[in-house]
What does this fold into?
Amino acid sequence: MTIPGRWTFRGHALDTTRPVIMGIVNVTPDSFSDGGKFIDPENAIRHAVDLVKQGADIIDIGGESTRPGSAPVLLQEEIDRVIPVIEGIKGKGITTPISIDTRKVKVAGKAVKAGAVIVNDVAALDDEPELADLIAGGNLGAVLMHMQGRPKLMQAEPHYDDVIGEIGEFFEERLDFAIGRGIPEENIILDPGIGFGKLLGHNLEILRRCGEWLKYGRPLMIGPSRKRFIGEILGNDVTDRMYGTIGACVTALNSGARIFRVHDVKAVREAIEVAYSILNDTGSNHE
It folds into this structure.
């Protein structure tokens, strides 16, 4: 299993042979896990700073909930939510890369001007293809995520004949599109979209077999944090899924994923670092 070694973008080159942690800051009133908790910009900025202290390698700022059943947010409302937070983080002197979680080119453009250097698009540049031009022109990082359907109805009746093969075909098509629009291949990572138009069995198969997508030559990001499938297994409420998240992340690490988008940064980082050391024998002192 060959792990792609670099994720490069404006002013940054992350080593993706090792674990990379993306910390989540949802500036929304209705996200499934922490909706409303960080809607106040000052709270969101403090939380972002705290995630960096916990060991986040990237901070992902989102102003539109994409939980199952969620409705789209108006453009200006999304801008008003995320820009003060990005500006506030930069104002604290934080040099950790900032990612903007959006499907909208105008939101991404303003976020980049405020200091974001990654665009994390759950629609993989399909909703607004011109987002690819912004990414290419700015030498930005790009996260291309798979989603069956759109958030409003994606969990209604998700179906796959071959979940690994179909997501793989999607990755191949979206990579070709992004590169064709001028985004350097080394700027792109892939995310299979845990919980985005997937049932429990689909999510488990993704975590178990995600390494099969390494053949596309790009690092894999997994975002299982506090997701519904963990509650389905454990019977736990969304506020009590940290340990389940750790289990999912360690499994994905073993399968070949190296980037982990999570809420509980410190807990996941420590678990992942230990698991990585075991898998790679990095703590050995053989004579």
Notes: The first helix runs from residue 41 to 54. The mean pLDDT is 92.
